Amino acid sequence: MATVDGPASDRDGDPAPDRDGDPASDRGSDLAPDRDGDVVPDQKGDPATGTVIGASGRPPALTDVARLVGVSHQTVSRVVNNHPGVRPRTRERVLAGMRELGYRPNPAARALATGRTRTLGVLAPAGTLYGPTSTLYAVEQAAREADYQVTVVSLHSLDPEAVRQAVGRLLAGGIDGVVAVAPLLDTADTAGVADTTGAADTARVIDTASVTGATGATDALAAVAARLPLVAVEGRPDGGIATVSVDQEHGARIATEHLLAAGHRTVWHVAGPPDWYEGAGRIAGWRAALESAGADVHPPLAGDWTARAGFAAGCRLAREPDLTAVFVANDQMALGVLRALREGGRRVPEDVSVVGFDDIPEAEFFSPPLTTVRQDFAEVGRQSLRSLLEQVETGAPGGTHVVIPPELVLRRSTAPPPALS
178 — phi, psi (to 5°)? Predict the structure, then answer.
């Protein structure tokens, strides 16, 4: 079937209403066919500059682009709404005209024409932690590249009522789908886990046997997914919710195996909060690597992702005479561990090797530069948006689970243990 750029017709041969929401009066009577067979409005630009501008005091309109390019405003509308029935050459001309005039599509008109707002909602945990904020930035970047706007609602918890209220605010603004940055397990799932927010000079251990799976948060997100497209980032990969996540267990395992391969008899762990998927996953990967090697498994020291918590754990570790290796659940806590070991008279890496997680921009400038596990947040953003837009475009329910492998970045904070150096 031939591709037609001209105005659509109904079954009686009358021109169909324009889909961009422009009033019928825009179609006028001064129309003539262009070389592509399009109906062209009368050219009323500035002959001195060759630039067609809108009426005085208003931004460029869709009809201004049509006059400049020499096509019908229906054709411009189809390009704006990414309709397939436009020749590639014509599409490029229209896009060039839009850039020349600085034309920006009217969101309300576009929504009327397509039934979509090209706006995505993002649920994200409140705070400035590197992992969640990097994930949010990556999702926003991917959405911008796909010509979508993003509306963000911050959450202090993922309990069902908080999720319902947040989604209600997003729906009121008009969204096509939701990306939920959902790193938290339910409070009920971590009942019995030791408190991790003690004073800075104390470090506590985690009873990992009490950490179980999520229920309420997962159920709340599943209820949202039943109503509109949804992808959970760092969410639990079960049920009918589409998820995109970094393989936290694998990252922790390769970090621990790196230290064991260097000759360390065991590896201590400064853990993140066990009510975070990342924290629980890294504990699981660290433990699995030690058990697979037949190494001793010391109780992990609890942290809260901050350098202060890492310092508290490091002060305790500095007093362990047999300590030679530590895997720290994120780089910020590793910074605190490095300082505590230095102040405790333990050299890194000559006496103690340290591995972090995240590869924050400052990690290579730590003293010594930190060996760590890198998460590809840009790929997380791209895969999250791809999964969500697939649901938006096809109407198919979510359910795919994308797992992105992390990468071990070797620097100068690890070495063989003293007896082998």
Answer: -130, 135
Q: How far apart are CA 177 and CA 16, in angstroms?
A: 30
CA 355 – CA 258 distance, rounded (Å): 9
Indicate if the alpha-carbon torsion angle 385, 396, 233, 405 is positive or negative. Answer: negative
- In SS3 terms, 146-208 reads as CCCEEEEEEECCCCHHHHHHHHHHHHHHCCCEEEEECCECCHHHHCCCCCCCCCCCCCCECCH
What are the DSSP calls for 91-119, one per residue?
Answer: HHHHHHHHHHHT----HHHHHHHHS---E
Domains of the chain: 24-113 (1.10.260.40), 117-246+376-404 (3.40.50.2300), 248-375+408-420 (3.40.50.2300)
Cα 138 to chain center, whole Å? 5
List pLDDT tens digits, range 306-361.
Answer: 999 999 999 999 999 999 999 999 999 999 999 999 999 999 999 999 999 999 99
Measured CA to CA in angstroms, residue 393 lies from 50, 175, 212, 315, 398 at distances of 39, 14, 35, 53, 12
What lies within 8 Å, CB to CB, of 92 at 6+ separation is: none
CA angle, residues 241, 152, 158, in degrees to nearest 5: 50
Please give the Cα distance from 392 to 148 (Å, whole number). 12
Only one residue has tokens 């599409």, namely 91
**Rounded CA separation 80/201 (Å):** 59
DSSP state of 370: P
Find the helix or strand (DSSP H, E) in which 374 lies: strand 372-374
- What tokens were used for 243? 């998820």
Tokens for 353, please give them. Answer: 């090797």
State the average pLDDT over residues 35-62. Answer: 51
Instruction: Give residue for tokens 């927010």.
Output: 197
Confidence bin at 193 (pLDDT 50/70/90): very low
pTM equals 0.69
